[in-house]
Design brief:
Length: about 190
């Protein structure tokens, strides 16, 4: 099921009062307002995204809305001096991702930050990965173009970025994946 369809179903369930029942039990977790629900990227799509971005030695990879950390962990596993950072607003995801990175043996080269992705400082990134929604990609675009260095690669699972034409579109698993290269400042 596509992420857009899941969001529509959640919205319908919320208006029918079904989601409120689930929230009533979540006493251990602080409430969070998610711009997009948690749906993990399948592993073959993760591999395709990192290949499309050509993640290699020296890269600093940011996954905005990192879920269980799978993209961050896979990026750190690609080469010994790749650093990777995951940002998620949901503390449950940050706890899972941190534990997963420790289990995978890449805790030293990964970092997970509980934060709204719109508040994250992106200046050190050389690769940014996204699995959000079309509207969020478009909303994020000015921030990406403001903060990212020329040449930074942006890869998105499933969704394009409005009228910013991607440099490449590829297929991974059952998904389209998109690549953009951040242009020189004068050409943004
Ligand atoms: C579709 S999942 C993608 C997870 C992971 N990147 C992957 O591809 O497997 C989107 C994630 O974004 C997180 N999220 C939603 N709104 C957010 C926000 N404003 N700031 C940071 N994270 C957010 C959700 O908690 C969820 O884990």
């Amino acid at each position: 099921m596509s992420l857009v369809r899941i969001v529509r179903l959640l919205a319908a369930a919320a208006s029918a009062g079904l989601v409120a029942i689930a929230h009533a039990d979540a006493t251990l977790e602080p409430p969070v307002s998610l711009d997009v629900p948690y749906v993990p990227t399948p592993n073959e799509v993760v591999a395709g995204m990192l290949r499309l971005a050509d993640v290699k030695q020296g890269d600093v990879v940011y996954d905005l809305g990192c879920g269980d950390g799978r993209i961050v962990i896979a990026a750190a596993q690609r080469a010994t001096n790749v650093r990777a950072v995951g940002v998620d607003i949901d503390p449950r995801r940050i706890a899972e991702a941190t534990a997963n990175a420790r289990r995978a043996g890449v805790a030293e080269r990964t970092r997970f930050i509980r934060q709204d992705l719109f508040d994250t400082d992106l200046r050190e990134a050389s690769v940014v990965t996204l699995y959000l929604l079309p509207s969020l990609n478009v909303k994020l675009r000015p921030k990406l173009l403001e903060e990212l260095k020329p040449g930074t690669r942006i890869v998105s699972h499933g969704f394009d970025m409005g009228d910013w034409k991607p440099a490449r579109v590829a297929r991974a698993g059952n998904s389209d994946i998109y690549l953009w290269i951040v242009p020189e400042r004068g050409r943004r």
